[in-house]
Design goal:
alpha/beta, Cytidine Deaminase, domain 2, 5 helices
């Protein structure tokens, strides 16, 4: 999760919402890491999770990402939750909940929906305080700048 937090810091430094993600194999090998790039890429789908899933699929040469864990600093949205399910990631670890858009535990429980063909093990709270601080500081600075 420390690498994901470093990615989130990079996002904040470049004016992006500070979310970072990494995908690791079961043996701990980092396959991909990235951060939000919606502003810089002019792409509404350029969330950290989506970028990491795409990069990992290319690097591993497969779209089924079984045997992997996704670590992300903020609870994934519905788009990212869908991509996690479709890519067959085994585990999700996220630092803090997103009460406005979270689709894992907050607003929806997409990853544990019995109607879908894949369920994901969910762990939350790792480095929660650090992730919350990054987000709070980013949005506080943005509000001051917008005044």
């Amino acid at each position: 999760m420390e690498l994901a937090l470093k990615e989130a810091e990079r996002a904040a430094q470049s004016g992006e919402v500070p979310v970072g993600a990494i995908l690791i194999l079961d043996d701990g090998t980092v396959v991909a890491q990235d951060h939000n790039r919606r502003e810089s890429d002019h792409d509404p789908t350029a969330h950290a999770e989506m970028l990491v899933i795409r990069a990992a699929s290319q690097k591993l040469g497969r779209w089924r990402l079984t045997g992997t864990t996704l670590l992300v600093t903020l609870e994934p949205c519905i788009m990212c939750a869908g991509a996690i399910i479709l890519s067959r990631i085994d585990r999700l670890v996220f630092a803090t909940r997103d009460p406005k858009a979270g689709a894992v535990l907050s607003l929806y429980q997409a990853l544990s929906d019995d109607r879908l063909n894949h369920r994901v093990a969910i762990h939350e709270g790792l480095y929660q305080q650090q992730a919350q601080t990054l987000l709070r500081d980013f949005f506080r600075a943005r509000r001051i700048k917008d005044k």
